[in-house]
Design brief:
The structure is a homodimer. By secondary structure, chain A is an alpha/beta fold. Chain A has 14 helices and ten strands. In chain A, the strands form two sheets. In chain A, strands 3-10-9-4-5-8-6-7 form an eight-stranded mixed sheet, with helices on both faces. The longest helix of chain A is centred in the middle third of the chain and has 17 residues.
Chain lengths: ~325, ~325
């Protein structure tokens, strides 16, 4: 219920999903029953494998995450997370307040043994396919150990979910040399170098290497990662503005842009977050997929598929094994 | 001599500049005399107002800045900076190693009274015109006071050089609320809020506000600023890759992209750093303009014009006055 278009997007996305996969799994809609039924009445949901759990409260974008979780036990977030916790559901999907979803997952599900801080992983397009950024906003102030663990989790996610073979993990820095960067980056470089073998560490990478595709997993603190994620998400809007400005310079430019409209959409599809759906919260004892607040039905549908894959590929088990294995 | 194409770009850019402005100022070329003369022989430089100071050594991209400055007194960087320091030149322009130029400027020219750390300011395009990012890489680990001073310097530069009226200065963060962000951001928000009146502080801004143009001066530490600068510089290359990929899907796409080639260049011109030329190092007791290592002649030409403007608009005097004025 915390998404910008809840529960309209959620209901429509679930219907699209279950139709497409022929009821391969069961979906529990957790939220205000009346509002959900109202949305359902706009679609033909006959024969689809879902149920509803009533949760009248909403944690919105302005709520303080930890306080809201404690004071709103009947929110869709807390109720839904508990359904996942008690094993009645294998995964939890939400387009709500990222901070609140992260906090609820950590508090209610707990952490995978060996994980200091769960991380939100963002997926960027690049010239060599999808690139993972860990952390994209869960942990603002980091220690080298956290970044090392982000690398372990990101590497596993990249391998299983993004099908990268022996993913290249780079430390986001402002120069390639070991001596470059702020204190955290310099200490982290050392920390990771002393733990070789946990993943394919290619050393420092720079901002320009992300879209170029010179790296598969970008390790950084959640402050830098979140800034760059939001910056990247604003690029399509800026390009649209530039194309529009150009189109308004005359008849010929207008015609050309008009002609190219469909193709431009195609070209920028890789930059469209709704294609992948949601991003995972890695390191919690469960499967949490977080969507953009303004997720349309397509994004919700894809989030459900990502949740299914995350369960199937046993991402958490791989993370736990890797963190506990001997050097 | 430190630029990737030195001294070819430097000589060609200077010639273009002096022709265009009709010898409005004098340029001193500092570098290897033989190489410079060799480049000059490729052009018609008759009647142009310039001179050459021989400096055979080169500080390249791999040199450690501080050590190189001390061990290479005959480098173009150290010799050129000393010519500026002793008053024989009003400004210094270089496409060399940014770290070395920053270090040489700080060590040789010294700082403006009231400035703790000089800052490199980067210029981003946006829907509301050029946006300044301070710091873009000079200071990786910052204190709130540094960021506050970056705001003062950036605000003045934005007002005089980028013609922004009462520039909006925002603190780059991962949420709008005062409580958001890492420790540095939270402390800086407080620090700036207690010093209202030095500039038009609009509070926290996020990564998405930069290209949108919701802010004129973005204050952040040099680590975040440099990552985002290099990321942004890689966008045109990524788009080119996407357009090429699209063009290769068939005859019609190829024709369409071919037809649009010139227009695309026009559309992405705002994202082309050579248009503005170089970026200033603010806070040193002099005028230093730093260019991209791979600056073409056009960028060199524009850097010279930026240097002239920075002198004319008395940017340093304004910074000193603002930092020393009573609250």
């Amino acid at each position: 219920m915390g998404g910008d278009f809840a529960p309209a997007s959620e209901v429509a996305g679930m219907i699209e999903c279950l139709r497409q996969c022929d009821n391969r799994f069961h979906v529990v809609l957790v939220g205000d029953e009346t509002k959900i039924n109202n949305e359902l009445s706009k679609h033909n949901a006959a024969g689809l494998d879902f149920s509803i759990v009533h949760a009248p409260d909403i944690i919105d974008m302005h709520d303080s995450p930890v306080i809201a979780i404690k004071t709103k036990p009947n929110s869709s977030l807390v109720k839904g997370m508990n359904i996942h916790k008690d094993g009645s559901a294998d995964a939890f999907v939400s387009a709500g307040n990222t901070g609140a979803v992260t906090a609820a997952s950590t508090l209610i599900l707990g952490r995978i043994p060996g994980v200091s801080r769960p991380t939100v992983a963002a997926i960027f397009p690049s010239e060599s396919g999808p690139t993972l950024i860990v952390d994209a906003g869960a942990v603002s102030d980091c220690r080298p150990q956290f970044l090392f663990e982000f690398g372990v989790m990101g590497s596993i996610y990249s391998e299983y979910m993004l099908k990268k073979n022996y993913p290249r993990v780079g430390l986001l820095n402002i120069g390639e040399e070991e001596s470059k960067g702020n204190e955290l980056a310099k200490e982290t470089f050392k920390y990771i170098s002393e733990r070789k073998g946990k993943f394919n560490f290619i050393g420092n990478i720079e901002g320009r290497d992300i879209l170029k595709g010179n790296v598969d997993v970008v390790v950084c603190d959640g402050f830098v990662g979140n800034v760059i994620l939001k910056f990247a998400e604003s690029i399509p809007g800026y390009l649209k503005y530039q194309f529009k400005k150009f189109a308004n310079t005359g008849i010929i430019p207008k015609l050309m842009i008009g002609l190219l409209r469909g193709s431009l959409k195609e070209i920028f599809r890789d930059m469209d977050y709704t294609e992948f759906g949601g991003i995972p919260l890695l390191g919690v004892n469960g499967v949490t997929i977080i969507g953009h607040g303004s997720s349309p039905p397509k994004a919700i549908r894809n989030m459900l598929f990502r949740a299914e894959e995350t369960v199937q590929f046993k991402i958490n088990q791989h993370i736990q094994e890797k963190l506990q294995e001997q050097q």
